[in-house]
Amino acid sequence: MAANRSTADRRARIEEMRRAEQARERRNRILTIGISSVVVLGLVGFGTVVLKKKADEDAAKEAAAKAPIAAEKSWDPKKLGRNHVETPVKYDTKPPVGGDHHPVWMNCDGEVYKKPIPETNAVHSLEHGAVWVTYSKKAPAADVAKLEKKVDNTTYTLMSPVDDQPGAIMLSAWGKQVTVDGADDPRIDAFFTKYVKGPQTPEPGAACTGGVGADGAAGAGMGQ
Description:
Elements: H1 2-66, E1 73-74, E2 109-112, H2 119-127, E3 131-135, H3 141-152, E4 157-161, E5 169-173, E6 176-180, H4 186-195
Parallel strand pairs: 2-4, 3-4
Antiparallel strand pairs: 1-6, 3-5, 5-6
Helix pairs in contact: 1-4
């Protein structure tokens, strides 16, 4: 009789332990599902925020690309020659914004030139979609330094001094040009956004490397 009660007690304890273990497993499953749900919701929420931010940035860039730039000058691209020549070219603007040019372009992958560069090579860079930042001796040194940093960090741009240009700081693209008030002028960012490899580019996809560097040596690029 006592043996039967002992066996029954053991069975009861085992059953109680089994039920407790099952309860723990259920709690753990619920906890795991809850944590997973929170993580998934957090990731979804984060992804939504990131996608919205990117969409907003893209919309802002698109709007900036379409917005007119104050005091910007434009030239009819059909009237800008595109012949390759190795003789001097007399341009109607200073700096030039297009026209016949040298067969080899100036390197323009964020290049800062401390000395004047050949106009005919620079015009070829504009044909490839580059923006050319120029400054005269009237430009404050602090502004020049800021612009050098911006150009250095922006592909398809180049910068050089042009002492006899009409404005202290000017930006040129193919058929486009603007004179700005200083390095903090908001039109600089607008001009970069709109015209660095912009829709005005006669030769989209053409290189900004492999041309002429600061030492005047030409790379492999010819005839594009």
